[in-house]
Structures
1.
Amino acid sequence: MTTRTLPLWLCIFAGVALIVLSLCLGPYKINWSQLVYDIAKDNQTTETIVFFELRIPRTIMCILTGVALGTGGAALQTLLRNPLAEPSIIGISSSAALGTVLVMSFQLHLVSLFFMPVGAIIFSMAAASLLVFISRRSHDHVTILLVGVGISLLSGAATSFLLSISDNPYAVNEIVFWMLGSLSNVSNDDLLLAVPFALSGALLMLSTAPAQNYFVFGGEVAASSGINVKTLRAKVILGASLGVGGVTAIIGMVGFIGLLSPHIVRPFVGNEPRRTLIWSPVVAAALVLAADIAIRLLPTTNELRLGVVTTLIGAPLFLYVIFKRFGH
Amino acid sequence: MGRQCRLFIAAVCALLFIGAASPCAHASTTANHAATPRIVSTNICIDNILIHIFGTTHLVAVSNLVDDPLYSQVPFLDPAIERISFDAENILRLRPSLVLISNFSNHRVVKMLRDSGVTMVTVPFATKLSDISQNIQIIGNAIQQNAKAEIAAEAIRQQLGKATPMADQFALHVTSNNYIYGRHSLISDAVSYAGLAPVNEQGFGANAGFYNVESIIASNPDHLIFDDVSAIASPNLRHDRYHPALKTAFPQKQRIKIDPRLWSCAHQLTPQIIDMIKQGMRK
């Protein structure tokens, strides 16, 4: 632990505190001694139901969302060599949402919920592959970003098309609210669906950490250093798609976490991609936990959507990065 | 003459032809106006009342939800009757003599229809069970079948007259996506008629919105009213999407199951919910 990385270590402690807070906060007032007693006696009471079926899945999903989006953002920024690359900006999240909406439109989710993450992953993988393909031909930051924005717009338009041809206003309403992104009402069943995909995606991306530093100078330099560039690209595409797709299918679109976390981490790790990739999910998980706790503390009748909050915080940062980098 | 020039002339001719054809179509619309009545129903609530009480005579179109077993209680409808969305051109094409709309129908479409001289009657969205008999009379009056309407409306009034409101227990209705319809809704009115309070002492349940499961559990209702589509949905599809925690927190004896087609919009069968809730309480 160095003085420079001290804030990142503090972030871990803050993360642990946020986990505890996330488990403690909610509209139901848990009697903690009663909960301990019920657990010891193996009783099923309202306390145990709220704790094990609502608070724990929600907190785990917060962490999982942060880990998936944090690793996705950091890995994609290095692979595309673009500091603005972020799943929600470059169309990976909106493609995942399109895949899920398509599954919902054809009612495949009523056959098996498993189709939701699968649909999301297939579409996010298509978007990520297209971006990486274009990034190999053009190293211009703006071009890659614009292609990403194009993919995002196309996915958004296709989603709007599906919603507008739906003859069921109730289903449309539900899909629109789902797309806003929320960790409210995550169940253990949802976790079972998301964990295998999101975790394997994050691990796949983290496995590229040792090679990340070589990739800053481009594919050719990385290849000359003995890195199997094709494998690395495939791992990042697959990892980001699994992570973002797995999470988006369950909680909807949560933007800007993948942009914020690497930018927060970089000053403390000397802009080193490998260490950025390792620390980014930690910071992202803390950010998602903090945002979700803030939502729960706000005195609103209807819980604010996580996707709305992260975008309200993330969009100004996005503009700041653009002005800082391209302003002059 | 170049290829582009020829294409341009062809496009101009096509536009001129469409322009010339339009007034003809309009003329035939106006000419057919005075013939037999042509009724268009534009939402599922009106479809249900119209078809069940007054039949399908002179009915040329209904809403496109009419064939959806999850929302419609119309058993079988002649395929010759068109299924439409609330779209001005679609409706005008049918040359209607009467269009039955709702007070939440898209106001731009309503204005277009009004400007086109279409006769429209508004059937308000019911938020109370007593609104149903009024709506039946509005529809009956519009299609000049007042006697039938009065009989059906009276039957509903009698059904509601038998119910005795006596709120001593709190029952909360929640949809599978955790939506609560609030105090001023048809389902809350039905809960009150069944002798239960739809809002708790702290006011939970009063406002409509998506709620989190923990808030619902924390509101501590004596009964939780679930929508049960098992009887109407395909057995191969997983329609029951209630959060598992709700099912665990509210054991069978606290759960009341109702048919969502009865409350999603008001029609002559809606008062049956009162008996369904009462039966659920007696379990």
2.
Amino acid sequence: VITALIALLAAPAAAGPVDVGGYFRVMARPDVQGGNGRLGYWNLHGRLMNEGPYGMLDLRYDLLEREPGASEPWASVHARIEGGSIANADPGNGTLAAYRVSQMYVRGGNVLLQDVVWQVGTLEYFFGDLGLYDIRPATLFFNTVGLSAQYRNDFAEILVGFGDSGYGIHRDRYDAIPTFGGAARLRVGGHLDLGVGAEGRAEPGVPGNVNAPYQTPDMSYEDWVRGEVVQSYVQEFGEDLLDYFPAPQPRTASSYALVGHLGFGNFGPLVWNNLFIRWERRHPQRSTTEPWQGQDVELWVHDFTDQRFSLQIGDEAQLRLVPGRLDLAIGGLYGNDRDLDNDILPTDFDRTYASTVWRLQLYPARTFHFLAETSLAREWSRNGNRFREHADSIFANRGGQPDVRGLETGDSDTRRTWQAKGGVVLNPLGPGIFVRPSLRVLYGVQYSTQNNAFGNAFVERLDQYSDFDTVEQHWHHLAAVEAEVWF
Amino acid sequence: MSPYLWLLVLSLVLSGCLKSTPPVAAPTAVPVRVAVVLESFDDTDIEGAPASVVEQITAELHKRNLVPQVVPVDPSFATVRSTEGRLDRLEGDGVGLLVECAPRFSAQVNGRYRWSVQVEATLDDGRADEVRRSFKVPVHLIYDHQEEAAALAEAAPIVARQVGLLLDEWIDVTTAE
């Protein structure tokens, strides 16, 4: 697919300029401790050694070519193909099924309005990136396809857009989610950058549409999370009345996101500092199913999932400590997810997390560098024990007495993780923490209060009939050879 | 540390300290007037390239026994859009090197800002056919406030290398004669 698209775009190159860019990272991280080649669970500990392989092609074809300094109309078509599988580097073994056309849009400028860029297609827009984490809190229109208009000059930028997020959010159970939003940013003298943005989504109820938002009435939250809604109904009314299981009632779903950005720098050793904030009310979930005597009963859960709020704050500073010799990047990330409908079940919607990542890069030669990074993270589950500190955690939290009605999934509500990574980097293009391509030989170590806090294939059940014993280990060591390139 | 690990580190250090082969130099020192122009797709103004870019380009001339004489790029360059017209602005006899750089923002790509820097490098020594090299350098900036000058600065190592190849070509031609 990728080759065909490149060929398709490259063929008429003589008639109009084609610009092909992209990114990939590939690595070998033989994990002799039973892991899957990633040091920890996720990017909270920094992207380095916690991410898998990835490939991307970004294509631009100028339909109506731009000329420097000209104010004539121009137009270009953009497409992006990306995914996370490369042969011999992950379980997918390079399958193209792991890739998708993530972006496709047409941009046109100086049409109707001077210096306004119109975009039709996918609309994703961000204020910047936390490069150490590979996380972009201040992102808008991630799920939206539609139309946007953007005006930008040397001091300010305004973006307004609208479209539909129905496929992005609900995929094959599409229901229209009209989405409106915009962003504004202000630049002051190359030292200060301020931005705000918002996005609102509404999903009107359409009675009769099986993909619209509904709520199954007379259902308790606890029964739902336990998967006992149908069982409770049958106990109360009898199996003969299962055909009269309550019909779903239509709802109107809505959600929104507010983002902010403060950037400053270009003085002293500070290259730049970016602070991002995101406050979001998540879009309600559609439905779940419960099996009952060989058939699935669909439960509509709008009212159980419409109070999920998420706060994320991230900051990253890049400092040039000794120009051309030593750079430092410091990042921090804080998140607070809250589900006001849920007071009983530990989930990712009811937690806080915080971490800091520090990366030093030393340049003894132009193309040969040393890298050192460390991170410290704390995750806390608001609704009780979520993390297993011990292979036999049932003896740690309940003295060996089983709680068959318990909803907790571990013996601690807190996970603390420390990581350190270091090694050598070959950068053909010279110094810079974020200069690519980078060829790296790294060693990483992690200590986590959670047992086996990395992707693994260990047995976790305490089952006397299992052929495999449980394993308890809190230290994780990993060596890596990896390459990362933008092109 | 095991001897194998030491060997690995040593080989990596040595690979980072490889000496590059010096390029072919002109037999006698030749003065070259150099102008590095920074254009914009969003603005009609034209500026001189950042000093770091000019330094990297002139370093390529020094390596080849060419003596750069940097010509300041003033606003009047904006009134002349053609390469030939701009070469005429490099007043004086002898050799003129014009490097026209036009960074263009393309798209936000997975956290970075993709630019492509279109470069037209032309060397004119008064003959009928100028020596010319056109190329495009992809750049992925990490901050939104970084614009044309930053994109060109990021592309400078590749621009300088390409200009060096252009100079090699010209030296080959002139030496053969």
3.
Amino acid sequence: MNVSRRWLEAFLRRPLEVRELAERLTMLGAPVDAVVPLHADLDEVLIALVEEVRPHPNAERLQVCVVNSGGAERLNVVCGAANVVAGRKYPFAPVGATLPGGVRIERRKLRGETSEGMLCSARELGLGQDGEGIWELDTDAAPGTRLVDALPLADHRLVVDVGPNRPDLLGHKGIARELSAAYSSPFRLPAIPSPPVTDVPPVRRVGGDTVVGGVHVAIEDLEGCPRLLGVVLRGVKIAPSPTWLAQRLEAVGLRTINDVVDATNYVMLELNQPMHAYDIARLRGPSVIARRARAGESVTTLDGVERALTPEMTVIADDAGAIGLAGIMGGAATEVTGDTVDVFLECAYFTPKGVRRTRRTLGLSTEASYRFERGIDRWGGVEALRRCVEIIQATAGGKLADAPVDLGPGPPNPPRIFLRSSRVTQLLGIELPWHAVEGYLVSVGATLVPKPADGRIAVEVPSWRPDLVREVDLIEEVARLHGYQNFPAELRAFRPGLLDDAPIERATTEVRRGLASQGLLEVMPLPTAPADGPESVQLLNPLSSSEGHLRRRLLPGLVRLVQRNWDNQVENVRLFEIGTVFTAAGAGERPLEERHVAAVLTGGREPAHWTGTGESRIDLWDLKGQFEAAVGLAVPGGVVQVQGNGWIGLDSQGRTVGRAGPLEADAPPWAAPLFGYELVLDAAPRQPAHFEALPSTPSSERVLALLLAEGTTVRQVEQLLRRSGGPLLEGVTIESDYHGPELPPGTRSVAFRLTFRAPDRTLRDAEIDSMETRMLAALAAELGIQRREAGASGGGE
Amino acid sequence: LSCQILVLASLMSEPIGYPDLDKLLPRLDAIPSLGSEALAAEIISVLGRKSGVLTAALRSVATLPVEQRKAYGGAVNRLKVRFEEAFARRSETLDAESRHRDLVGVDLSMPGRRRWTGAEHPVTRVVDEIVDIFRGLGFAVAVGPEVETDWFNFTALNFPADHPAMDMHDTLYVDAPPVPGEQGGRLLLRTHTSPVQIRTLLESPPPVRVVIPGLVYRNDPFDPSHAPAFSQIEGLAVDEGISFVDLKATLVHFAHRFFSPTTKVRFRPSFFPFTEPSAEMDVECQLCHGSGCPACKGTGWMEILGCGMVHPAVFEHSGVDPEKYTGWAFGMGPHRITMLRYGIPDIRLLYDGDMRFLEQFVPGGQKQP
């Protein structure tokens, strides 16, 4: 909502400092997003009196004027306008001034005559469309006065962010009411500069169907239009609006159109009542009827667009068909034009839901629909209609054909809300004197009916505040008007909550920190993705088809991020993500949500270094190590197993919960191989680390080089070694894996380093020998594995 | 020169009395001047297992007449110890010299060897910091689903059906039939973390103090300050006797902990369907500290969170007696706070996974080599 400072000043009859005003509105709950100074570019334009006009000696269409611009010297100004008259005042741009649009005025010679400045038209000053001749000013201001002060033009436009609960703040009157409460000073409607021709007679209340000034008016759709006021003005003169009216509209960013249309817009901006004027000559009947649209009906709106209507929509119609969209936009066929003589003014209450439905269906949002959707003052129409008639009569003239009519049921008893002082204290946490509470409510228009016996009051809320429905709504008003800044900020005693942290959050934090310590960088891409199989959850109204589904896996998104890094010539990429994935469930069921962990790795194993380390690239074994670490972090009791050309992670029940392997990607030729894994994050509580006493005896080591036939895995061998080695075999690590021509065909040589330790004594060689013999026997018997011949060692190891 | 000869003479070893051993003495005295290769050769030549002269001398002890063995053997052993000590001393000296020589030639300004360092996302760090502050105030962490029903996301939170208040929540809907049941309804992507307020209250009786971090969704295309999905963190405190003063005090305390103890904070009225009275909390602009700059649109303030007293309708929908219990709630956007804190001009940087961006947040700092 755009607000003019000067317009508010006219309501409050006092000057307002714009910074203070913006601050005040913000603290009342209507934050000011921007303050725009208006006509600051006219600062240098002065009022000048033309004292003498004589013809230019060398040019037929130019004149030379002697101008008094407030200084001691009279200035010579060459002027091309035919309407310049001695003894009149005009806006004057002296030498050195810059006009809107950037034109800088300089002393120059025109056909031999020096011109020391410029007399301006309204258009040259950016004040309207009138470029016919210079702008003759009707002002008492002395020559030399700044134009912006004399007219007065200087103003500020405040862009106020009005919440959807406060439709009353969508008009200057509503904002003035708030300020009046805040400043404790009265407010009333600004005076109309030229007085109205006749008094507007009282509104005549009628049923759902009547005739006013020869126009048949009816409500057929009471649901969409519970109230409709109308009046007929005959003999109006359509012309540009007077300056005061045009200025107020332009100050809030509205274009001026003509005196009648501007009057309706003025009332909307002042009283938050959208209105519409119809050219009676173009109304068939003539009639104005609020009804539902008929199937197949259409209307061409003011913007020239033909719009198909449905029976859900409320329209204004004449005898022949729809002529406007109720509460949104009038029709082109009946609009007021330069030829209009008689007008019908419509002032209605359209229900928020109906307007909202039509607005959304047609995708057509207007100043009017914005206001009706939020709920205007249902009983404010009388004041608005009278105001509009007065303004039109003061500007365009015209005669009232009849008393205005008011169709629709009369006002109900205003709603009453009970307010308890105990509840105010309970919610706000401070004791407010009761008279202060009452004062705040009265200041925004509420009426109080005290009930001293039971410590509560009945509050009748004003009709412009549809947001005040419950007791708590009144308490908010009290808090707001008391001022949030006036509440203490003292921490008082509290009871801690009884809930524990959500297990999945604890697990997530632990895994995240663990993966960061593995050298991975966390990312948070969007969870939307292209379709990924029939189980993808599809969105109804996605932003784009490439984001039309919820992801089922994290890895494809991470691969896209790697490719983007490659696009940036970044070779070393190590990313991880912990996020939600979604799988469609049966009809009528929520999709399954699961938290996953995924990582991608490519590039150097270590940062490049001048000593030559860091030249090796991340390979399968880096991936496996990362995957093992991730399974350890994310899946309590989980293990990693070989499957296909990669690995899977199994949870403690043996279910597959993750995969790791090389990844396909659209890689530039210089890119290193890409690897990745993804697994389900298990929320189960983590076991605390298990402490074992540190050994007090020395260990002994042996290295066994074993010949493994094709198909025999190191894992099988290791399990057998542990099983046959007995409890004193402490550890098994792999020293090397050698393939070579001197080995028996189809075998490789794997060296296992075995660590032995007895907790209570130093092991003797003989004991270790017997364990070794036992293990070798088991290897030979169960896996057919022989020890590699001693002395045949060579190459590779 | 004569002086040097004198010094050398005075250092010469005393004869031992066995000619074959005495002739080794000059070699003993020469050890301190040997180079490393000569030293290695000399060690083998004197002490070598196979052909060392002292090894041989020791072996020959057994061949001597018994009465000579002890004296000669003792002399050989003493000489051996002297050689060993001299070799060790010389070897140490040579090592030290060589270490010194190595370093003298090296440019120590060459870069050191680093390992890859990982990092949590800057938004994660902000969320963790916020959560930590609230943990200290008796809050625990709760979570809820990202696909919600319109009942949880709107109805239970007192959004009037078909009202302009919904326009602030441009909603992404799931293309699936509604979920039946009392609290079912149309499936959508939650537009805020507030539905978890309802879920928490339905499950656990007051006192409740939880913070709820999570992702929320809006049908907003990406631009420098908007994203279709972003993080939010919700707070909820419900108990008997909780008031607007508690709300203000707790959040001011939070702001002072999170920003700085001297940061100016203000509360101003606002509107959310699920709180009343509602407020917005601003903190003094972290860039200009109140004097006004483009980031704060000249106001000197930055919007940090929305908050308010839990609306009685929300309690009614979650089975809590609004006459007995009161509560407050807040919601803030860690993505936005991250941008404010680090001066990140475009929210998309937080989604792009660009290594050059992420590595700026590595603890201790790291440059992409």
